[in-house]
Amino acid sequence: MTAELSFPRQQARTQRFSLGVPRAFTVAPDGSRVLFLRSASGTDRRTGLWSLDVETGQEAPLFDPFSDSEELSPEERARRERSRESAAGVVGYATDSALTVAAFALSGKVHVTDLAAGTTAELATPGPVIDPRPDPTGRHVAYAVVAGELRVVGVDGTGDRALAEPDGDEVTWGVAEFIAAEEMDRFRGYWWAPDGERLLAARVDNSPVQRWHIADPANPGTVPAEIAYPAAGTDNADVSLAVLGLDGSRVDVQWDRAAFPYLATAHWSAGGAPLLLVQSRDQRTQRILTVDPDTGSTAVLHEESDPQWVDIMPGVPAWTRDGRLVRIAAVDGAWRLVVGDDVLTPVGLQVRSVTSVTNEDVLVRASEGDPTQIHTYRVRKDGVERLSVADGVHAVVRGGEVTVRLSTGLGFFGTVTEIFRGSDRVGSVKSLAATPSITPNVQMLELGERGLRGALLLPTGYADGPLPVLLDPYGGPHAQRVVQTRNAFTASQWLADQGFAVLVVDGRGTPGRGPGWERAIHLDFAGATLDDQVDALHAAAAQFPFLDLSRVAIRGWSYGGYLSALAVLRRPDVFRAGIAGAPVTDWRLYDTHYTERYLGNPLERPEVYDANSLIDDAPKLSQDLMIIHGLADDNVVAAHTLRLSSALLAAGRPHTVLPLSGVTHMTPQEQVAENLLLLQVDFLKRSLG
Predict the structure, then answer these.
(1) 157-162 long-range CB contacts below 8 Å, 24 or more apart?
(2) Could you read off the pLDDT of 238-272 as tens digits, one per residue?
(3) I need a labelling partner for 77 at 20 to 30 A (CA). Which of 397, 456, 546, 688 fits?
(4) Cα 24 from chain centroid?
């Protein structure tokens, strides 16, 4: 990275220093090789497929996309938006069980890599295509077609045929619907049987979903994009399942879809029958179902209910190979691992996800005491062993006796990726990421009577004297900003270096502290999350008297944007300025699964939506407010900002609106991302004086 680049430009060009970082690891079951994705440098968006020979430690490129130009269908663009993917090239891949072949989509075409020979072939298939996946035996590749079909082809390109075709204009097969991808982290729409002879496939009918239109005001000749957006209280897509055979057979899967319309996840492994996790519309009850693939009948294996909501936990449900159910459950105030009838983790360990299951053990990620750290653990019936050693945030991927361990921490930039065979370190994977031009100096804090976790960053070289304070939160449920990883605070340090004390706080609703902590925001976004920011600010000022409470601002994006606007509207006694990026301003305009989980259905609880939305607060604005919104945003649509701005104008309240033409909920464009930071700093300095 050249020294001439400013930090904002460097951060934008490197996509927040994510380019060049190895990711998406798969380990061969015999431990011979590790596959991963990585771009060629810290500024190269073109991601390629790589292989590492565990025995020799040699890395080899399997496929280089060569060109930065891509031809992406609107459906693939939407898929990447849902997964927050801003790189180019090979951004995802799938393999067979033995890691002999890999498949991926590039510019809407199916590509298959022979992993032994290291050669890649483009298959002649109808396109554009989405999400190609080899079957577990490595003989066929299934893929979804933008036109709605789910098809299959031999890995040699022969025998291409449709397994399912849409029976309506709004019907698709094998693709996750908007709600599943945006809110459930389910990006798949089909799952292969272990023997490679059948697939469990989702049929999605979007016809019940209301239509919204995303216009491009900067280009009035462009026809607005029509999207199916299920806003809170409106109809969702109709999702069903069928077992599709390579022989042309179809068996429809039966469950009580009226009572449990949400398909949260599906799992089909060698350990047993297919598993489904389905939820009720109010998300207070969910069931784990087993599927008989021959008849389509289902049986309830486990049911869970909660008066507030139930959670979808990553990596579960799953089977052990000997047929025991693996799940994560709220037991005695903690998220605990349950295998069969046995609760295997202690109350003090908050399990976050399951990453690998065998008959002998389960690998999990969890927090123990300190929610700012996430460690990896091996859980057996006779005890729990922590695998990660150093403070920080860790993850693990396993295949046979080989594991890939990924570690981040406050003491170094980026991710350290190490290869272990058993307990012996046998290699590493290089990161080609750029090094930020600034080094965060982070003080981790525990604040107030609730022990709110915070991070304080001061200007580099700060000696003494009062400092204006900038709160820099996300603040919403099920997401964290205060974690022990250096890269998380680079932008906050740059903001601090502009003359601010920057305080980042995770309040109630954030993960790592147990079900009760997360559910404390039920029906009360506006109260709980704002109170926690204010309480943390005052507790920090009591500890650090140089924090000038007469000059306090707040900035944030998405939920953080909502929180920033909320802060200046409802607590002008505390906040002199706010920057609201892509804010939700009226929760009736946000999607069903997220919003109804926390606030209920607006048709049943209109008073809750009124209390948590911002439009009626417009006449209260007495401080400086900048609102930023991408006009192409199909997640938090620009109507949120426009409605708040209209209400502010009607009330005669001055404010600033910065519309971003052609920008979605992400801001990957280099110049836009850089100038956004610069404009925010200018606004803050003028507002705080």
Answers:
(1) 157/112, 157/121, 157/123, 157/124, 160/123, 160/124, 160/125, 160/126
(2) 999 999 999 999 999 999 999 999 999 999 988 77
(3) 397
(4) 14
